[in-house]
C-alpha cells in the first residue's frame, strides 16, 4: 500500500471485496436489510414543500463520475461519465421534469443545454448547511426516479430504497456482475448497460423507451 494503515487499535485489516466472503453474503441472500439508510425527516418534509408545486414525474439526474488523470497528470475521460447533452432525448417525454443531483465536476454542462431540455438546480447551499448528501438524500425521497451513472449517487439511491436507473459502461465494476439488468444489492435499481465502448446512444434510447412505458 502507498499509505499503510497504522496497526495500533486495529484487530483486523481487510479489503472491501473480502467482506462479502466473511459476511457470507450471496446473490440470493445479501446480508443487509433494505433500505439501510434513511433521510432526515425534517429535510424530507422541507424538500417535499419545495417541490410541491411540481406535479410532473420528477427525475433526478447525475451524469458525471469523478475525474480521472492519465500518466502525465492531465485530465482524462472517465468511461463511466456521459455528457449531459446526450441525455437531451429524455426531454421529448411529456409530463416529466428534471433535477440536477450532480456534484461539482460536470455542473458547468448545465449552462449549455438545448432550450427544451430544462434541468433544475437546487442552489449553492444544497448539501452545504446540513452535511454532505443530507439534502440529496432528502430530495431523492421526493423524486419519482433517479437516473445516474456509476457514482455515489447510485449507491445512495439504492441504499435509500428509491427507484434508480444506473447507466453502466461496457467494462463496469465487479459489483454490478454481468449480463443482468438488476442488482441483488439494491432491489429498486435497474441497470442499463453500454453495448459498445463509449457509445451511450443505445442506453439513452432504452431509457427513453422505459420512461415512455412507465
The multimeric state of the shown protein is single chain
Q: Just give the CATH class.
A: Alpha Beta
Task: Give the beta-strand count.
Answer: 8
Q: Based on CA inertia axes, which overall geometry fits?
A: globular
Approximate strand percentage: 5-15%
CATH fold label: Rossmann fold
Side by side, the strands of the main sheet go 5-4-1-6-7-8
Largest sheet: 6 strands, parallel
Structural class: alpha/beta
What is the residue-mean pLDDT, rounded to a whole number? 91
| Level-2 CATH architecture | 3-Layer(aba) Sandwich
Radius of gyration: 18 Å
Helical segment count = 5
Structure report:
With 214 residues, the protein is an alpha/beta fold. The protein has a single domain, classed as Rossmann fold. It has helices at residues 16-22, 41-50, 134-140, 152-160, 201-212, and strands at 57-62, 68-69, 75-76, 96-100, 119-120, 145-149, 164-168, 189-193. The strands form two sheets. The protein has a six-stranded parallel beta sheet, with helices on both faces. The protein has a two-stranded antiparallel ribbon with strand order 2-3. Helix 2 (41-50) crosses helix 3 (134-140). The radius of gyration is 18 Å and the shape is globular. It starts with 15 loop residues before the first helix and ends with a helix. The model has no long low-confidence stretch (mean pLDDT 91).
Secondary structure topology:
Layout (H helix, E strand, L loop, with lengths): L15 H7 L18 H10 L6 E6 L5 E2 L5 E2 L19 E5 L18 E2 L13 H7 L4 E5 L2 H9 L3 E5 L20 E5 L7 H12 L2
Parallel strand pairs: 1-4, 1-6, 4-5, 6-7, 7-8
Antiparallel strand pairs: 2-3
Helix pairs in contact: 2-3
